[in-house]
Amino acid sequence: MEDRQIIELYWQKNADAISETASKYGAYCFTIAENILHNTEDSEECVNDTWLHAWNAIPPQKPNILRLFLAKITRNLSFDRFNARNAEKRGGGEIALVLEELGECFGGGADTEAAYEAKELREAIQRFVRALPEREGNVLVRRYFFVEPVADIAKRYGLTENNVMVILSRTRRKLKAHLLKEGYL
After folding, report:
1. Which residues fall within 8 angstroms of residue 26, CB to CB, at 6 or more apart?
2. What is the C-alpha to C-alpha distance for residues 44 and 183, in angstroms, rounded to an integer?
């Protein structure tokens, strides 16, 4: 089913919207949650919560790109669950590692999540990512939005892990310079 048809089902408050969304985007959302939580049960719960949040958000919202709309909901719910259950002890610490890496751009890991969610900062980051060469932008988004491990990113793009780390390091430096220029640091 096309995304516009699924969105129309949500607008009609037709319960088929949830089953169609789960069928089309269930594995995608599960992967996002699993990359953050590293726990199958928690990830499945976040995905189920994603459907509920989508149901409650549409209407009044009408997402332009359903896949990204669902990804953002799943990601936010997964971070909330991570924080609530102190998943770092169970999950290998990928979130802590990602926040530490991004911390060098913002000047501190503890404030990174709050700063990242500020509207103006988010827009500055979006402008920065759009201006990057495609591969750099994809690597950055895979690491810091989808929280993919470096090894998975390397495999996806046919790179070595070291090459991915170098790309991320250079891109973080560019991001920091961009944020300084924009007046966020």
Report:
1. 47
2. 40
Instruction: Identify the sign of the CA torsion 103, 135, 77, 92.
Output: negative
Q: If you average pLDDT over every residue of the chain, what do you get?
A: 84
Assigned token pair, 185: 């640091």
- pTM assigned to the model: 0.65
Percentage of residues in the chain having pLDDT higher than 70: 79
H or E segment and range at residue 139 = helix 134-144
Question: Is the confidence at residue 127, as pLDDT, over 60?
Answer: yes
